[in-house]
Amino acid sequence: MFDEDPFATAEQRELEELSEAVLDEEAERAEPGLPVLHEVIEALAELVAKHRCVGMILVDTSHLETWERRHGAAAFTALMARLSAAAAEARGSVIREQDVVCLEMPEGDTVLLFLSQARQKQGEQTKGAVDVEEVMARFERQLFEPFSMAKLRFHRALDSVALGSALLLHNSSVDPKREIYRAVRRARADAKVNFHEMQRRRHRVVGQMIAHRKINTVYQPILRLPERRIMGYEALSRAESTDAEKLGVHLFVAASRAELDGELDQACRVLSIGRRPQMDETKRLFINCLPPAFFEPNPELDELIDGWLEDGLKPHQLVFEVTEQITHDQAVRIMPTVERLRSDGFLFALDDVGTGAANLKLLADLEPDFIKMDLTLTQGIHTSQRKQDLAAYLLELAKKSGARLIAEGIEEEEELAVITDLGIELGQGYLLGRPKPADQWVG
Q: What is the CATH number of the domain that holds 32?
C-alpha cells in the first residue's frame, strides 16, 4: 500500500467528471438515426395492402434495464445505435433495399424490420412470400457480427437481446395500421420464446466447449511504441467458428449465463500458458483472470505458477490482468493473494480503465504494474479533445502510482500519432498486430 494516498478526493471527482464527459460525447455521436414507427405507418399500411403478406422482424432490448442502470444511458444509446446501424445495413443484403427499418418509438428499445417480398431467385417468374424465419436467422448473424470485437459489456447486453417475428396478412375488413401494431405485439411474444430457447442452446454449447477444450487461444502483441518492439503478448480465448456462430455472443458471457464462467476462466488460463509463444526474458505474457481466480484457497492457481517456474520462466514475465469492474468485496478478498504473488515477483495489470466508474481506491490498493486504457477511449482519440484530456490524466495517474500505461484498441495511424504525442509508450491494437496463434509469432 502507499504510505500516503496519492489520490485525493478531488482527483477521484476529476477522473469521474472526465470519464462522464467522454461517455456523454460518445452518446451524442451515437444516435440511432432511424425513423419511428408512427412516422412510416402510412407507408407500411400501403405496403401491406399492396403485397398482401408482409413479414416483420423485431429486435427486442427491453430486458436491458438492469444493464443500462449499471453502464449508463450513454452506453445504452451507443448499443442501440450499433443495432440500428446493423439493421439498416442489412438492406440490400439480407433484406431488400425498399424494406422498412424503424424504431418502435422515440428513444425506444425496439428495432423493427418490415419485409415486403422474398428476394427473387434466378429463373423465377414471380417473387413469392417472404420466409421470415429464414431471413431472421441470416439477419441475426449479421446483426451480431459487428460486435465480435466489442468490449465484454456489449456482449453482456447482446446476451439479453432477442429476436421475434410475425406475419401481416392483408384483410380488407381490418385497418392495416391497427394490424401492424398487433403484429408488433405478436413478434414481441415470439421474441420472448426465442430468448429462452437461445439461452438453452448457449448453455449446451459452452458446456461442451469447456469439457472438450474446444477453445482457440490467440495472442496479441503489446508494443513499446518508440521502438515498435514487442514487449509482451495478451492471451485471448475465442470459440471455434461453428460454436461462435451458435453462441452469437462472447463465450465468457455465455459461460456466465450458464454459471460456468469460473470453469471457463480456469480452462483458458491453463490453455493460455500451455500454448504460449516462445518468449525470452524481455517478453511478458498477459493473462486475463476473473476475481475468484485469486480467492483462497485455489490449488489450480498454485499449480499454474509452479508449472510456469518449472518451465524456466521468470515471475516478472507473467502478468495477471484484473478488470476494473470488480466489486469492492471482491477487491478486498483478492488482496492477500495479490500481495503474496506480488512479493514473489509476479506482475499485475488493471484492465478497462478510463470509462465507467473509475475507481482510484482500487488503483491505489492493487498497485498494478500496468494500467490498460479502455479501447473505447483510444478509438477516435484524434477527433476528441475530451478523450485526449482523459488519456493525459490517466498517464499522470499511472506515473504517480508507479505503473505503466498501455493504450488498447489502436486501429488508426491518427490514433497512434496522438497516443505517441501524449507520451504513452505502450500500445496494443489491430494497427500494431492482430491476435494470432502462438506459432505465428515465432521469430
A: 3.30.70.270
